[in-house]
Amino acid sequence: MKRIGKYSKVIAMSAAALAMMAALSIQSSMAYFTTYVSAGGGGEVSLRIQTVVHEDVSEMTKHITIENVEDNDCFVRVRAFYSGLVSIEYKNVGGGDGWYDGGDGYWYYRPVLRAHSTSSQLDVKIIVPEEFDKDTFNVVVVQECTPVIYDDAGNPGAEWDTVYSDYQRGGKN
After folding, report:
1. For 24, which of 39, 105, 136, 172 is 20 to 30 Å away at the CA?
2. CA–CA separation, 104 and 78 (whole Å)
């Protein structure tokens, strides 16, 4: 018994040290398991963009505005198609921010067309020859829109060649 008493202090100190080490390692293990977690599941991402063309005609000029009727911002562009017997001239009404000639047959609207807002006015003046019957032709306005894509610096841009498809439950919409 004397021998156990002699080592009881060493055993008690070793047990205390071992308990402290265990407590420290449990705390760091708990921190690891509460800090690093994984998650599963998914969420819906909507790229839906819908715009409406508004056209008024007066004195052989089409007055065009584009309205964004969705909750997402977009870029828009416009092009007028007409017969070879007439010609047209585009005019950015208001100057400054607004419409500009893209050099590819389209007129582009800058800045971004915000959700639930309307662009400034773009005028398309229709020029017909004197002897031409003004009631026998049509100028068709086509507009396109694309979602705003932001680069790494947060600058908005448009990708006009990208095709976005709407798939739901395996079938094309």
Report:
1. 39
2. 11
